[in-house]
Structure formats: structure tokens, C-alpha cells
Amino acid sequence: SPHRPTPALPALIAHRGYAARAPENTLAAIDAAHAAGCRWVELDVQRLGDGMPVIWHDADVSRCSDGHARLRELDWAAAQGLDVGRWFDARFAGERMASLDDALARLAGHGMGLNLELKLSPGHDATALAAVAGRALAALPPERLLISSFDDTLLAQVRRDHPEAVLGWLAEALPDGWLARCRSLDAFSINLDWQRLTRDDAAAVKAAGLHLLCYTANDPEAFAPCWEWGVDAVISDDPARFGVRPA
Ligand code: G3P
Ligand code: MG
Q: PANTHER family, per this entry (predicted)?
């Protein structure tokens, strides 16, 4: 396999920026994670109708903005007309949807790392989304970027285009054929739903030499056994609950 960095992955990664403290997937959330002492965040990226890559989780904007539209029906100018902060708290009124490039610049400025989830919503173009990975690879140092997706076909494209990329395959629970697929992707990690993780699955992942990440855990006591099973990192809405402290 080509020369590839080992990510400087911390044990705690802040989910959707810092979803417990700021509107998810915004620059304000990245700033909240930085202020809280988080070294890495997870963010979702998708493409607007005009192809602009933006940081957004849902297929539409209803839950997290003052508008109602499918993401693929919006262009960048229309998306910038949305308030994406007030729904969370009046303190965040005026927050605007972040482009991927905005988010990458903010993370680079903070010296932070990123788990970028390529989020393929129904009706979106998988090939075009996979191509977005190149922007992240160009913007962040290789040891501070993990690219993940639930869509393994999309990840295979990222692997073909970027031999140097560090990849994590997302799944709810270990899928049939997971090991062969991780090998063919030359994956760094498998990223699983912690609530479906079993001791045996964790042992198998670790025995295969893969890193094991879990999403989305917010209760440190309930999660405690997973550390014993060898989980390397947890993606949490609220890393402070797990002991992350400001520097
Ligand atoms: O990447 C982990 C986690 O973000 C996957 O689920 O729906 O929160 O994007 P979701
Ligand atoms: Mg995500």
C-alpha cells in the first residue's frame, strides 16, 4: 500500500461540529469544539443543487434552518439566505450554512483534525460527492483527516482517486463480508453504531488490525464497556461529558 500517514486520532471526536453546544455542522460548532478542547470534529458534507459542497446532515433544511427545501433544490445564494442558527438558540441567530471550504479553513486555522463524512442523500450524485474528498485532502495535513461514508462504493472511488487518503467505513453493525471489503478499500477504520457493538465484533475488528470508532455516544457510563473492548475513538455530541477539557 502507498505511503499513508497514521492519523493523530484523539479518543474523543465532536459530532457534527459540537452538536450539544452549537447548531450542528456550522462554523459556530467548530469554534465551540475548539473552545471546549476538542482536537477533532466530525462533519457531514453534501452538495447543493449547483454542486457547492456544504456542511449539512439532512436531505432537506427543515430541521436545522428557518426554510423548507430539499438541499438539491437550493443553490449557494439561496442557501446563504437561510438562518441555520436560530433553531438551536437565539444566541446563534444569523449563522449561515458553511461551505466545505469555509469549514476546512476554520479547522486549519484552529489546527484541528476532521472526520469528514461523505453523506449521500437519496437523489444525489455519488460520483460528484466522492470527488469532494480532494478538497479536504488539499486543505488539511494528512494526519488530521479521516474520510468516511456509509456508502462503500463511494469510498472505493475515493480510494481509486486518492491512494493516500485515510478511510473509515461507516456501518450500523458489522456487515457480512466486512473484512474483505475493508481490505479492498485499504480502510484505516470501521466506524460502528456503539449501541449495536458486541464484544466479539470489537475483538474481530481489532484482530484484523483495523481501528474501531463508534458513533454517537453521549453517556460515558453506558459506553464504558466499549472502551474495555478496544474502541479507539468515540464520536460524541458532547465530548465534555467524556472528560474533554479546554486547554
Ligand atoms: O460519522 C458518524 C455519524 O455521524 C454517522 O451518523 O447520521 O450522525 O451522520 P450521522
Ligand atoms: Mg455524520
A: GLYCEROPHOSPHODIESTER PHOSPHODIESTERASE, CYTOPLASMIC (PTHR46211:SF1), GLYCEROPHOSPHORYL DIESTER PHOSPHODIESTERASE (PTHR46211)
Q: Decide if 162 contacts 189 (C-beta within 8 A).
A: no
Q: Is the CB of 42 under 6 A from ligand 1?
A: yes
> What is the 8-class DSSP label of residue 155?
H
Answer whether 235 contacts ligand 1 (Cβ < 6 A). Answer: yes
Which ligand number lies closest to the CA of residue 168? 1
Q: Which of 195, 162, 33 is nearest to 55 (CA)?
A: 33
Nearest atom within ligand 1 for CA of residue 148: 1
Do 126 and 120 touch, CB atoms closer than 8 A?
yes
Note whether 55 and 97 are within 8 A (CB).
Answer: yes
Q: Whose CA is nearest to atom 5 of ligand 1?
A: 215
ipTM of the complex: 0.99
What number of helices (H) and strands (E) belong to the chain?
9, 9
Q: Report d(CA 212, CA 153) in Å as an integer.
A: 20
Q: What is the pLDDT of residues 34-92, one digit of tens each?
A: 999 999 999 999 999 999 999 999 999 999 999 999 999 999 999 999 999 999 999 99
pTM of the model: 0.98
Ligand in nearest proximity to the CA of 193: 1
For domain 12-242, the CATH class is alpha beta
Question: pLDDT digit string (tens) for 183-217?
Answer: 999 999 999 999 999 999 999 999 999 999 999 99
Q: What is the pLDDT of residue 98?
A: 98
Task: Specify the ligand 1 atom closest to the Cα of 119.
Answer: 9
Residue 114 Cβ < 6 Å to ligand 1: no
Domain-by-domain residue ranges, the chain? 12-242
